[in-house]
Amino acid sequence: MSALTLAGAAEEILGNMLRVKGQKSAYDCVVERNEKIWAFAVTIAKEKEYPLRVPDLKEIKQRANRPRNALKHLCDGKPVNAYYRWNAEEMIVRAISNYNRLWGKPPQKTISSWFEDYVR
User: How many angstroms separate the CA atoms of 40 and 36, rounded?
Assistant: First the structure.
């Protein structure tokens, strides 16, 4: 849970820094991808005459951060339904993606040195 909330905070801060620079964040890309997936689903549903409730943009955006936000506001007493490991991994990847867009990828040697020094 901590990994999810901390990575979520980093993802949000770095994403805001990207937006200030006029660039898309990882969150923006996830929302855009989900919009395209829903548009495709609508096309197929119409062809098959299958009723489909399509979420609006606001709901698509909320779903992209639902597990993180649920934990962030856990004090409301509602149970959180999440796949913690998967959601944490997704948030970490989004934060790293935002970092890389802002400053470029760190050299591999830096990453492996950090890992060897701190994660034993």
Answer: 6
